[in-house]
Design goal:
single chain, alpha/beta, Rossmann fold, Four Helix Bundle (Hemerythrin (Met), subunit A), 3 domains, five-stranded parallel beta sheet, four-stranded antiparallel beta sheet, 16 helices, about 15% strand, binds adenosine monophosphate, binds zinc ion
Length: about 475
Amino acid sequence: MKIYNTLTKRVEEFMPIDKNEVKMYTCGPTVYNYAHVGNLRTYIFEDIFEKTLNYIGYNVKRVMNITDIGHLTSDADTGEDKMLKSAKSEGKSVLEIADFYTDAFFEDAKKLNVKKPDIIEKATDLIDEYIKIISTLLEKDFAYVANGNVYFDINKIDGYYELSGRNEEDLIVGARSDVLEDKNKRNPYDFVLWFTSSKFEDQALKWDSPWGVGYPGWHIECSGISMKHFGENLDIHCGGVDNIFPHHTNEIAQSEAYLGHKWCNYWVHAEHLNDQSGKMSKSKGEFLTLSLLERKGYKPLAYRFFCLGSHYRNQLVFSYESLDTASLSYEKLLNRIKSIKQDDSIIMEKEFSLYQKRFKESLEDDLNTANALTILFEVIKSNDLNNNTKLSLIEDFDKVLSLDLLNIKEMVLDDDLVIKVEEMIKERDEAKSRKDYAKADEIRDYLLSMGIVIKDSREGTTYEIKEG
Ligand code: AMP
Ligand code: ZN
């Protein structure tokens, strides 16, 4: 297949290191709040990428991190720690916050038919790995200690700006004063590998290290987690375009300095989903979550369909009008499929292969999902294909599209769901007792979006599956 590689700025033929197993790493969520639908666009794109690789015959091993520490509110090593800020405002520990929003993230992913990665690793679970890498970087003189923190020295390597295609002058002109002000750094773009001294003395999670008690910088987790599970090489590394600089740039710098050779071959990035006023954010205006869309009556898979309608490398602007249009055509699509009844027709092998080939070629062409959908519509409308051939093709295409084209899911209250619902009700009771009614309502609405209705009475809170 062909895929655009941010590293070479070209669409390239994809060639895995070992064709028996593609090694794919995708940066995971920072779990201090719900994911916004922009974040989810990136995970939908990664899901399509992984499923396309499966569809064309590769076995994929996918690893994802959960950022539960050390991601600061600014892009540089400054600003408040997002996890800590959220924990303080919700009156919880950082780990409770992380667990709550990790579960919420996977609920969202499940509703969007985004497959869980094979390995999910929390940043806080691999501290020893990071210490090992940082120690070697210091030994090899790629890092230095200043005022208690360990910094990576970007002047010790070549090609620091290769991935982003930027240059130092551009970055310095664009930099804010707080980045330039860290007097401990030899270069403004040196980045922290390990903090022992920071503005935030009350950092909740700290570990012992050769440089004193502290915590890792944000970027090291993805290098450490990837190397733990994949060793010294990696085929694909994905994320949203905002990850290109500084996160992925710094991951490459530290990993290649540590390993002494090239680390990852394909860097693949999804463009952003913006709202009409510009960048989507978790703090600005109406915070667009999947459950908000559900409360407004949209199906999660209508949002997936909306995303698949445009190319992952194009910016997409979110508006309710465009989501309405996508929703409507998704419903029409489902209705048309419902009207194709299984009969005793024999599958037309030649035609089946021909459509399958075209579908595959669209995806192999740098994941052209919009064209893949066009082929699906052609199959449905075709006057030449019999019903069973159509249904088999739809089933086959849905392995990648994952739009539940043939099966409408019924909800069941299984053990996992019961545990989750009860935890959330407890969370809500706690929020109510500290008079945080906004949070309590948020949890009630979130449960509703999962199809669970809760009822408060003097005896306590009960719940049931929403009808319809
Ligand atoms: P975060 O939880 O902030 O670490 O982001 C999770 C993922 O969402 C990362 O891969 C980001 O690059 C990606 N991302 C952040 N903002 C957007 C956006 N507006 N549109 C698409 N992807 C985004
Ligand atoms: Zn990452």
